[in-house]
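R.M. (postdoc): so does anyone remember the format we settled on? I'll just put the structure tokens first.
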């Protein structure tokens, strides 16, 4: 939380309109990454006034994204895009990456190890 607060403070000092999404993002990195990509797309659509209620509902249905978050993001974009102020979305947490079982076994069976951590 300390790092996230520092990042928010630095972004604001640099002139960014800032929204902290979450301090405890968890889950599969691929899903979290896709959610962030959809958030970026949403920002672009709001700034060009090309967003639908359906798009907002779909975004709010993503893991970690609530309707209040979508409303706050829309307001942030609407208030700042017309004046050219950049936007910063911040989040922190710990995502996971799934390693295929075959790769794990391959590395484990071919790992030659010396030292006390083997």
């Amino acid at each position: 939380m300390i790092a996230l607060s520092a990042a928010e403070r630095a972004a604001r000092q640099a002139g960014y309109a800032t929204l902290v999404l979450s301090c405890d993002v968890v889950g599969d990195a691929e899903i979290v990454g896709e959610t962030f990509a959809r958030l970026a797309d949403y920002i672009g659509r709001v700034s060009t006034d090309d967003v639908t209620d359906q798009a907002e509902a779909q975004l709010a249905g993503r893991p970690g994204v609530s309707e209040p978050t979508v409303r706050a993001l829309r307001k942030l974009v609407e208030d700042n895009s017309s004046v050219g102020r950049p936007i910063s979305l911040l989040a922190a947490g710990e995502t996971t990456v799934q390693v295929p079982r075959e790769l794990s076994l391959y590395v484990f069976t071919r790992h030659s190890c010396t030292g006390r951590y083997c």
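R.M.: ...and that's the designed sequence above, right after the tokens. Also worth knowing: Strands lie at 17-28, 87-96. The mean pLDDT is 87.
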